[in-house]
């Protein structure tokens, strides 16, 4: 079903930290290089330029994060059009205060 002007739900990084668990689907839509510099444990790297190819049979909510929240919002719109339940993480990694894996952030 096509939804016009559908708002993308969003949460803060603090709210995301409370939501994270083993089953949370978290997509990091930054470039591979940015991802390797530091990412949230369990996040899957799926760069924005490839998000249109994303396929997952999950009916779970997908959380989307980038560096500042702009690319993730664009990615969330693409995923929402593909009928995924999506939540954008406002402020992205710039606002994340939790632990990271990989390089220094």
Write a structural description:
With 105 residues, this protein is an alpha/beta fold. It has one domain: 3-Layer(aba) Sandwich (Oxidized Rhodanese, domain 1). It is 28% helix and 15% strand. The protein has 4 helices and 5 strands; from the N terminus they run βαβαββαβα. It has a 5-stranded parallel sheet with strand order 1-5-4-2-3. It is globular, with a radius of gyration of 13 Å. The termini are far apart.
Explain briefly what this protein structure is.
This protein is of the alpha/beta class and 105 residues long. It has helices spanning 13-19, 32-37, 70-81, 92-95; strands at residues 10-11, 25-28, 44-45, 62-65, 86-89. The chain has a 5-stranded parallel sheet.
CATH architecture: 3-Layer(aba) Sandwich
Shape category? globular
Alpha carbon gyration radius: 13 Å
What is the level 1 CATH name?
Alpha Beta
Mean pLDDT: 90
Give the terminus-to-terminus CA distance. 40 Å
Structural class: alpha/beta
**Individual helix count:** 4
What is the fold's blueprint, element by element?
Blueprint: E1 10-11, H1 13-19, E2 25-28, H2 32-37, E3 44-45, E4 62-65, H3 70-81, E5 86-89, H4 92-95
Parallel strand pairs: 1-5, 2-3, 2-4, 4-5
Domain Rhodanese: 20-105
Keywords: Transferase
Pfam family, one: Rhodanese
List keywords for this structure.
105 residues, alpha/beta, Oxidized Rhodanese, domain 1, 5-stranded parallel sheet, 4 helices
């Amino acid at each position: 079903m096509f939804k016009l002007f559908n708002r993308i739900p969003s949460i803060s990084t603090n709210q995301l930290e409370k939501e994270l668990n083993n089953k949370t689907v978290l997509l990091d839509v930054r470039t591979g290089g940015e991802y390797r510099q530091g990412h949230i444990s369990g996040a899957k790297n799926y760069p924005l330029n490839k998000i249109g190819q994303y396929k997952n049979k999950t009916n779970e909510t997908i959380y989307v994060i980038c560096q500042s929240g702009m690319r993730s919002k664009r990615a969330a719109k693409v995923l929402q059009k593909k009928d995924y339940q999506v939540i954008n993480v406002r402020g992205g990694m710039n606002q994340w205060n939790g632990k990271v894996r990989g390089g220094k952030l």
